[in-house]
Design brief:
CATH architecture of the largest domain: 3-Layer(aba) Sandwich
Strand order of the largest sheet: 4-1-5-6-7-8-11-12
Radius of gyration: 21 Å
Order of helices and strands: EEEHHEHEHEHHHEEEEEEHEHEHEHEHH
Structural class: alpha/beta
Distance between the termini: 45 Å
Shape: globular
Strand content: 15-25%
Number of helices: 13
CATH class of the largest domain: Alpha Beta
Number of strands: 16
CATH superfamily of the largest domain: L-asparaginase, N-terminal domain
Largest sheet: 8 strands, mixed
CATH topology of the largest domain: Rossmann fold
Length: 339
C-alpha cells in the first residue's frame, strides 16, 4: 500500500533558522533540512519538500500568500504542510483558508523555540502536522475542517486560532472554540468540527473575483481617551494616505470613544470601515446600548460589524473583499455572517 504524498512548503520563520557566527539566529534552513531533521516522517508519508522563501513571517505579504495558495491549488498530492514563522500565522492561515480550493488536508505549522535551543518544538510540530495529514478522519473530513494549524500537539481551525503569547511554547489557542483535535501518542483524536458557514459564504463571494494589486487596509486600535487623529489624517489626505479600507479594534461589545465618533462616521462614508473587538474575538453587541458611541449608533451610521473575527482576521478578510471589488453592501453581508 502506497504512503500518502505530503508536500512541505517552507516559507521561513523560527523553525527554519540557524545561528550565525555571532550566535544570532538567521533564516537559513530549507524544506529539505526540515524534513531531514525528522527521519520518522519517511515511515508515515511519501515526503516532498520545496523551499518557497526564507523570510520571517513578519515580512510576508498578502501577494505572497495569494501566490502560495495558487501553488497549493495546483499540487497533485494527498496533503500540504506550510511551515512559516509564528508572528503572522493566525493571519496567513486565515487567508489561505479563504483562497485554497482543495479536498485534501492543508496544515500550517511553525516553531516557538529555535533549533539552537534545548528541546526545539519545530521537529515535533512537523511530525504532528504529517500525522494530521495522514490521519483517516482528517482526510475524510478535509473539506469540513478547512485549513488547520498544528502546534504543540493540538489542531486548530485557522479561522479561530490566535497567537496569545509572544514567546511561550503554548503560544497558540482558539479561545472561542478550543482545538478541533489533539495528538496523543501516535494518534489523532478528533474533538469537533468547526462551524464553517461564514468562511464558506465568504469563499463563495470571493471565488473567481480576486484581482492582483495591493489594497491597503488600516488597523486602528481604540483605547481610553483616543482622539482619532489617525482617522483625521486619513480624512484630510487627498488619497486617504493610500488606504482603501479600515478595521477599527473597538472597545467592549463594539464601542469607540465619543470624541472619535464623528471621524469614524466620516471615514465609513468614504471607505469600508469595519468594527472588530479589540478583546480578541467573539460576537459583539448589536442592539444593547444607546448614545452616540454605542453599537446601535455605529451600526446605524454605516460601520460594518465584524462579528466574531479578531481585528487581525477582519483586516485579512477586508483586504480580500477589496481585491474582489465587492461593494460596501456585499462586504457588509460577508462580515455579517460571522455573527
Amino acid at each position: 500500500m502506497s504512503l500518502p504524498r505530503i508536500q512541505v512548503l517552507a516559507l521561513g520563520g523560527t523553525i527554519a533558522t540557524r545561528p550565525d557566527a555571532s550566535g544570532a539566529m538567521q533564516m537559513g534552513l530549507g524544506a529539505d533540512d526540515l524534513v531531514a531533521a525528522v527521519p520518522q516522517l519517511a515511515t508515515l508519508a511519501d515526503m516532498r519538500a520545496e523551499t518557497v522563501s526564507r523570510v520571517g513571517s513578519h515580512s510576508l505579504s498578502f501577494d505572497q500568500i495569494h501566490t502560495l495558495a495558487s501553488k497549493i491549488n495546483g499540487l497533485d498530492v494527498d496533503g500540504v504542510i506550510v511551515t512559516q514563522g509564528t508572528d503572522t500565522l493566525e493571519e496567513t492561515g486565515f487567508l489561505l483558508d479563504l483562497l485554497v480550493e482543495r479536498d485534501v488536508p492543508v496544515v500550517v505549522t511553525a516553531a516557538m523555540r529555535n533549533p539552537a535551543l534545548t528541546s526545539p518544538d519545530g521537529p515535533g510540530n512537523l511530525l504532528a502536522a504529517v500525522r494530521v495529514c495522514c490521519d483517516p478522519w482528517v482526510r475524510a473530513n478535509a473539506a469540513k475542517l478547512g485549513v488547520m494549524a498544528v502546534m504543540l500537539d493540538e489542531v486548530y481551525a485557522v479561522a479561530d486560532v490566535l497567537k496569545v503569547h509572544p514567546t511561550r511554547l503554548n503560544a497558540f489557542a482558539s479561545p472561542q472554540t478550543g482545538p478541533i483535535a489533539a495528538l496523543v501518542e501516535d494518534r489523532v483524536v478528533p474533538l469537533s468540527l468547526p462551524v464553517r458557514t461564514p468562511v464558506e459564504a465568504a469563499r463563495a463571494r470571493l471565488k473567481g473575483k480576486l484581482r492582483p494589486g495591493e489594497q491597503l487596509v488600516a488597523l486602528l486600535w481604540m483605547s481610553i481617551d483616543e482622539p482619532g487623529n489617525l482617522m483625521r489624517a486619513m480624512l484630510d489626505h487627498r488619497d486617504r494616505l493610500g488606504y482603501r479600507g479600515v478595521v477599527i479594534g473597538a472597545m467592549g461589545g463594539g464601542h469607540v470613544p465619543e470624541r472619535a465618533i464623528p471621524l469614524a462616521v466620516r471615514l465609513a462614508e468614504i471607505m469600508p470601515t469595519v468594527i472588530a473587538p479589540r478583546a480578541g474575538g467573539g460576537p459583539m453587541l448589536r442592539q444593547t446600548y444607546g448614545g452616540p458611541s454605542s453599537e446601535i449608533a455605529l451600526r446605524k451610521a454605516g460601520l460594518i460589524w465584524g462579528g466574531r473575527l479578531h481585528p487581525l482576521k477582519a483586516r485579512v478578510l477586508l483586504d480580500s473583499c477589496l481585491r474582489a471589488t465587492l461593494d460596501r453592501a456585499a462586504i457588509g453581508e460577508v462580515f455579517d455572517a460571522f455573527g
